[in-house]
Amino acid sequence: MFGRSRSWGGGQGKTKNIHSLDHLKYMYHVLTKNTTVTDSNRNLLVETIRSITEILIWGDQNDSSVFDFFLEKNMFAFFLNILRQKSGRYVCVQLLQTLNILFENISHETSLYYLLSNNHVNSIIVHKFDFSDEEIMAYYISFLKTLSLKLNNHTVHFFYNEHTNDFALYTEAIKFFNHPESMVRIAVRTITLNVYKVDNQHMLHYIRDKTAVPYFSNLVWFIGSHVIELDKCVQTDQEHRNRGKLSDLVAEHLDHLHYLNDILTINCEFLNDVLTDHLLNRLFLPLYVFSLVCPEQSEDRKINPQVSLNLLSQVFLIIHYQPLVNSLAEVIFNGDLSVFTQHKNTVSAGVRRFTKPPESLERSLELSCNRGASEPRNAPNYKNLGEEEEEEERPGGGEEGCVFWCNNRLCVLV
Predict the structure, then answer these.
(1) Which of 173, 361, 364, 383 could be a cystine partner for 218, CB 3.0 to 4.6 Å?
(2) Phi-psi category of 119—alpha, beta or left, where left has phi over 0 and alpha has psi -120 to 50?
(3) What is the 3-state secondary structure (H, E, C) of 259-328?
(4) What is the pLDDT along the chain (414 residues), one digit of tens a residue?
(5) Is 67 exposed, middle or buried (0-12, 13-18, 19+ CB in 10 A)?
(6) Burial 23-47 (b: 16+ CB within 10 A, else e)
């Protein structure tokens, strides 16, 4: 079907029926005569793009020849050309809006294949938009979310390139995981969950090897920083004047836990291993649990014990991934403080700490994707986070070292 060729004659006169192949031919003629965006034709191009989208949606249900023509004339290239001319926010917003409407309303898988087949969509995804513009940001992240809803074992190949290890739909989306606008953060979570649910082993291994450590390390830091802000609100609001802010912070923490639980209950084992390691060694043990057991005067205690106990209760109520819950409960009920032992100048020194990743997620993704393919590993290599401790032999004495997750159980390196 994709290789089918037809002769498209005429079509240069405006037609009365806007929902027709003839009208699409006329719209194509308009595009060919206005390849450069100017002040005089800007409104015309916006209306043309809108009309083309409307015709494609109609053609999806009524006339397959519409998509034949759209593909043969490579009309998506015109959209991309207009976008790359930096023709102003008005055109940019309208283009993103119409693309979002188009992919939301396409129902036939064959039509979707037509739209994705020439890789122009990925070019739009990686385009350098002005994300300081709230409206552009909103339409862009909505566009990515709409695309993620179309992911399955067949369509994922249009977005994930196994040969080049490139998955722009996912990597561009997660860069906004900590965006100040909550609706953007929610959209990012939806996109990641839609990606993780696709049972494509090559794609999932790419996520594990190239993006999981940068993303999860930055995610747990973001969650932990939010917890510290929550604790400060509790400690400084003695007269309960900021109850609204505190309520929002608690609700946000619950959202974080529900998101983590959603990831874990997808049951992608190797992603769960990486996430469980980060949650135990970078968040729950060093921040939540340690705040319960460390001396009150300790500089290492980041949050109040009462706040920590409340947050841990939320963890046990919301997260249902049994291996993680069991391991966390085992540490708490056994009361073994050796899991918090710090060994300086050793490999384990940087593992069990609540620390900020040394690089932004965007920079970490760039470095990770430029490395050679990593070997599969049971536990994450936390030195990927940028810690520079020299590898020296552990001092004697039989003290426990780092806690890590391996083969569905909590292990201690001795």
Answers:
(1) 361
(2) left
(3) HHHHHHHCCCHHHHHHHHHHHHHHHHHHHHHHHHHCCCCCCCCCCCHHHHHHHHHHHHHHCCCHHHHHHH
(4) 444 444 444 445 555 678 899 999 999 999 999 999 998 999 999 999 999 999 999 999 999 899 899 989 999 899 999 988 877 888 899 899 999 999 999 988 888 998 998 899 999 999 999 999 999 999 999 999 999 999 999 999 999 998 888 999 999 999 999 999 999 999 999 999 999 999 999 999 999 999 999 999 999 999 999 999 999 888 886 666 777 888 899 999 999 999 999 999 999 998 999 999 999 999 999 899 888 877 666 666 678 889 999 999 999 999 999 999 998 998 888 866 565 554 333 334 345 788 889 888 988 888 876 664 444 434 333 333 333 333 333 333 333 344 444 444 444 443
(5) buried
(6) bbbbbbbbbeebeebeeebbeebbe
Residues 387/393/399/403 CA torsion (nearest 10 deg)? 40
Question: Taking a C-beta distance cutoff of 8 angstroms, is the pair 220, 283 a contact?
Answer: yes
**Could you tell me the two tokens for 376?**
């599969």
- Look at the block and give the residue holding tokens 């968040």: 283
Q: Is the pTM of the predicted complex or chain greater than 0.90?
A: no
State the amino acid at position 345 in one-letter form. N
